[in-house]
Amino acid sequence: MRQADELAALLGRLVTLDGVHQTAIPRLALIRSSQPTEPMHGLHLPALCIIVQGRKQVMLGEQIYLYDRTHYLVVSVDLPIIGQVVEASTEEPYFSVRLDLDPVQLSALMLESKPNATKPNATKPGEGGHTGAGPGLAVNPAAPELLDAMLRLVRLLETPHDIAVLAPLAEREILYRLMNGEQAARLRQIATAESKLQQVNKAIGWIRRNYDKTFSIEVLASEASMSPSALHQHFKAVTAMSPLQYQKQLRLQEARRLILGAALDAASAGFRVGYESPSQFSREYRRLFGAPPLRDVARLRGASALEMVGA
């Protein structure tokens, strides 16, 4: 794939250190890893991710998505996932490009064009089709036209004076290619305020703002303008977990961040995110991350892979 080769060479010039690197182009990040990483938990925001060298796997619930330079990944709502770079080396580092998705731009583009509505989302049999709120994460083959547009966008980093005028045009083409590809239905749902996906997204937003508080499914359903049963059904279809499981993941990920970044002890971090029982917090932390808080954080300290989940 010529475009992937050119992108890999370009990232090799632009990014020499491992990690996630924000760029002068809004919403665009470049990612590098010179070795495979540990499985990393994190909240992945809506984005397009294209690998140009190496391989990565992402786990949402019990489903594992493996992708490489022949595929792209789209995340349509805020999702707690586990990400792991599985193929990388000093000689051939893992390189990827992440473009955060802007619902405002998607809405404007949808009004101006007629996206291809004939291609359903890539879902398993029995999962939500293009008319419902299917999984909020999908992997699809990367078309040459999409890679061409991404290559033009990233090239602008070598001519910064062109970014203000040309970057919006390249980003617009990327979104257009997505809206006419395998993810047409999912992108339309991101752009449509009354879609089931956006109703679930309202519930997700409410949980994110109130993750440290107890809540009832009735309150959450009212926030999403859905019945409790409909919310539970569509929420699980999108996120692969229930609202309470989603809240628990947010709580534990935030507690981990507080212990690692703010130097809080485990009990204080657990209390800060809404746990009243230190023993319950420790049990659930170990169940999610595979080790008790102090041992887990000791393993993570100094690991650049901590930020690799969203790339």
TrEMBL record:
<dbReference type="InterPro" id="IPR018060">
    <property type="entry name" value="HTH_AraC"/>
</dbReference>
<feature type="domain" description="HTH araC/xylS-type">
    <location>
        <begin position="201"/>
        <end position="299"/>
    </location>
</feature>
<dbReference type="InterPro" id="IPR009057">
    <property type="entry name" value="Homeodomain-like_sf"/>
</dbReference>
<dbReference type="GO" id="GO:0043565">
    <property type="term" value="F:sequence-specific DNA binding"/>
</dbReference>
<dbReference type="Pfam" id="PF12833">
    <property type="entry name" value="HTH_18"/>
</dbReference>
<feature type="region of interest" description="Disordered">
    <location>
        <begin position="115"/>
        <end position="135"/>
    </location>
</feature>
<feature type="compositionally biased region" description="Gly residues">
    <location>
        <begin position="126"/>
        <end position="135"/>
    </location>
</feature>
<dbReference type="Pfam" id="PF06719">
    <property type="entry name" value="AraC_N"/>
</dbReference>
<dbReference type="InterPro" id="IPR009594">
    <property type="entry name" value="Tscrpt_reg_HTH_AraC_N"/>
</dbReference>
<protein>
    <submittedName>
        <fullName>AraC family transcriptional regulator</fullName>
    </submittedName>
</protein>
<keyword id="KW-0804">Transcription</keyword>
<keyword id="KW-0805">Transcription regulation</keyword>
<dbReference type="GO" id="GO:0003700">
    <property type="term" value="F:DNA-binding transcription factor activity"/>
</dbReference>
